Please model this.
Amino acid sequence: MPSALLLVPDFSLILIGWLLVRYSPFDRAFWGGVERLVYFVLFPALLLQSTNTAVLDFSSTSAMLGLALLVLATGVAGGYAVKWVLRPDAASFASGLQTAFRFNSYIGLALAARLGGSEGLALMAVIVGCTVPLCNVLAVWALARHGQAALWKELARNPLILATAGGLATNLMGLHAPEVLGMTLNRLGSASTALGLMTVGAGLQMSGATGTAGPVAWWTGVKLLAMPCVAWLVGRHLPLTALQYQIVVLYASLPTASSAYILAVRMGGNGPMVAATISLMTVAAIVTTPLWLALVS
Model:
């Protein structure tokens, strides 16, 4: 089946979330609670279990991980460049910078499983495990510099960083959850995928980018065009398996993280602009992500 068709069920969940928030009693307040549940409980459970049980054979995935880090560096550099090119105000820059390099793990893990089954999920989990801490550190750092938040305090209580670090540490030490606990984490993680995608749809809102259309368009281009282009071009010359190549291009082409809005609001940033950027990238990725995957199929 073509990659574009494989993505339809998961993007359909985003559409369902968008429809429910507009045409059902489940309003934004309801979905705000669901988003917090996913962000603080369900998604950390998925990250903890997937990184704890992933086969961390760095000898066979080192090229893929190296490319993923190069892609991340491209996003950081490209996102930061807007400071000199378009000169947004300090609050908008600090809030929006993260949208250029963070990625929506809900969509990424769901699509990776769709593309490669358990092996695809494990490969994406390894990328998530290595890049999520870096993404969160960079995002919190930018906002902490702008506001009054303490960087290390924010990092120490970030559930995604804690879950990923815990999963990787216990995996490397050879410590794995008992079967009953593992099954519980799997159930929580499974719930996070569908609910996470639906909350992405429920959170779509295009208003809020007034006065910042230029930076928003810039960050969108960096995330959906520049980053996957680097993955596609460089990946062709690396010793990657076909699935590893697909997964790293998928990672590079994902829209920005929906949790970027939560972080921006909690740390006193420009929340409405970040919400509009997330929405624009998510809608655009419905078109761009299948196109990038078609190039590597």
Q: What stands out?
A: The mean pLDDT is 85.
